[in-house]
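Researcher: Before we compare anything, I want clean individual predictions. No alignment, no superposition, just each chain on its own. First chain goes here; please echo the sequence and then give the structure tokens.
Model: Echoing the first chain and its structure:
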Amino acid sequence: MVITTHTSEIYFVFGNSWPPIIHHFSRTDHKMVETMQSYWTEFERNGNPGNGWPAYSIETDEHMFLDEPPVAGSKLEEATCDYHDKMLGY
């Protein structure tokens, strides 16, 4: 599993493989462009990304691995998140 940084999805949201010397989109990358654009469009339209995106709850700590194909999961980095929650008084 690769954890990426905030905003790393922007290339896929806008289908931007420019400059091609740095960003050469593979077939999988082009599929991710379709997936990300679908999630963003549905979220803007309905307030929910849809297409299998799990609803979050504190009990299950659902999340989505943005891979091709996307995979829902739960309890990502649970011990680390619990530590920070405790430090912040949650």
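Researcher: Okay. Second chain, same rules.
Model: Second chain and its structure:
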Amino acid sequence: MTRLVGWICAGAVTFLAMSGGSLRAQDGDFNLDLHANGHATAQAIGLPEYPGAKPYKEKDDDSSSADLGMILNSFHFRLQVASYLTPDSGERVLDFYRKPLSRYGEVLECDHGHPVGSLQQTNTGLTCGDKGHVQINGSADSSTDRELRAGTPLKFRIVAIDSSVNGQTKFGLVSLELPKE
């Protein structure tokens, strides 16, 4: 039965990702809520918009953002990501987001997955090596140049600076909630 529910959920997530919709089912002890769309914003992620930044889309993408979520009984997963482009330097973008991120706890700075400075781990246990390496528009390795992280190992926010595009800085805002299991 568990395998069948897994296949149903995987098929529903694929359908939702392609159609940009939502699915909800509830029956006694069974609760399923899935959604997928391209409507994540800086505000929905819990961070301010960077002044003058423009949404960044790859040529083949319809949207510069994604909002994916799945609840299956006590299993909770949610990913919100929005990509932007600015003429400002990556350092300036990071400086802008340090204070807003501090609302979620200590701010940890990472460079290619390694901590920068004396803070190796936040008081909540968040590290640079925790799940959630950011992929900004298809970058499959942990090539993100720099990140700021704040939150807990299961629910955190990331501001990630990627390489420049035509002399501009590409960056992503992420909110990630991972299941406890």
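Researcher: What stands out in the second chain?
Model: Helices lie at 2-19, 42-45, 90-101. Additionally, The longest strand covers residues 75-86.
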